[in-house]
Amino acid sequence: MAASSSLVTAPTEEPVEGTVAVAGPIDLRLTLAPLVRGRGDPTTRFARGTFQRASRTPEGPAAEVISLTPEGVRVQAWGPGAGWLVAAMPDLVGLDDDPSILVPHHRLVAEISRRLAGLRLGRTDAILEALVPAVLEQKVTGAQAQRGFAGLVRALGEPAPGPLGLRLPPAPSALATLPYYGYHPLGIERRRAETVRRVAREADRLEALAGLPAPAVQAALMALPGIGPWSAAEVAARALGDPDAVSVGDFHLKHLVCWALAGEPRGTDERMLVLLEPYRGQRGRVIRLLEASGIRAPTYGPRLAVRRIERD
Known about the structure:
This protein is an alpha+beta fold.
């Protein structure tokens, strides 16, 4: 839905800049929040009304800052991959995404979609950058996964280009060559460490998947040992902007969906899929709306136990 664009290149020490006019509402925080892996994420953050991100693009490392201006969405980027980030910004913020495609079948979904009309589904086209954090989130609490990812970035990622003070995600070669026991002090046990090492060795092949339809990408990911439907859906949502991605196997999601759509405080994956079936093709959009709405299912019983791998 981009109406017009402008691009200004500059000397190496200066940012590459672009501005794209927007048709319809857009909320950068709602749209880009899934890309921030916790408050301590060294690669991505919101700051002073902007979204800031470091990435390893196909053209090299780069960092960007995105903001809303009266003219539209503005991006400034630094580094060898700066031009790639500027060109990819409309996809990142979902300027071609059309939230009006969603047809609500529940009053709550209709209300939330009106209230959060600025939520777009964007895509990074960065498979590994979505996959590695997803692997780290398997079978542990969110706080544990965030600490592990932040520790991995600080240990293996280099400073990103430009003045933002971000760090790049670790290079695939660094992830692949770090022995499994090198992950241990970061709270990452052997199973997840070996999966990260394995996908890092396949980085070139995995990144080439980004141009395929989401179901084909998910099938290719699930062919890898250690990657199941949950991880594949998480990648499809972030890297591909898949509006139908459903993270089956999530510890909390089934309860949220069942509570929001049926008033049932506890749910199963099977019941969640039944409730989402009327939205097939847009199930991921409904999930994003529910997650962003602030609705929480009632909690009962013990929480997922915290494992201190680094102390084992």
